[in-house]
Task: inverse folding
């Protein structure tokens, strides 16, 4: 039996914008969670587009996202490799 613990890891916390991942327990496609003051969280893929059914980023969120794109893509790539190895 395999037990995995859910955790949220801060990738970026800058200018009132928080970008996190929820791996190892999250789903494909690879994405990060972006939130800021007075806006609900949204899930954004590695190319800066929201996942289906999620809102677009605010201009401030967009700026922080693209300023940190290298680390964001590295985290998403690592998570996708992990998800592929899961037995289910």
Result:
């Amino acid at each position: 039996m395999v037990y995995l613990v859910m955790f949220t890891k801060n990738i970026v916390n800058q200018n009132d914008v928080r970008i996190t991942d929820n791996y190892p327990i999250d789903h494909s496609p690879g994405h990060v969670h972006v939130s800021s003051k007075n806006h609900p969280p949204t899930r954004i893929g590695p190319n800066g587009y929201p996942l289906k059914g999620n809102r677009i980023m605010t201009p401030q969120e967009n700026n922080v996202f693209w300023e940190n794109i290298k680390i964001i893509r590295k985290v998403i790539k690592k998570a996708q490799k992990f998800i592929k190895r899961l037995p289910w």
About this structure: The first helix runs from residue 59 to 67. The two ends are 12 Å apart (CA to CA). The longest strand covers residues 9-14. Residues 1-6 have pLDDT under 50 and may be disordered.
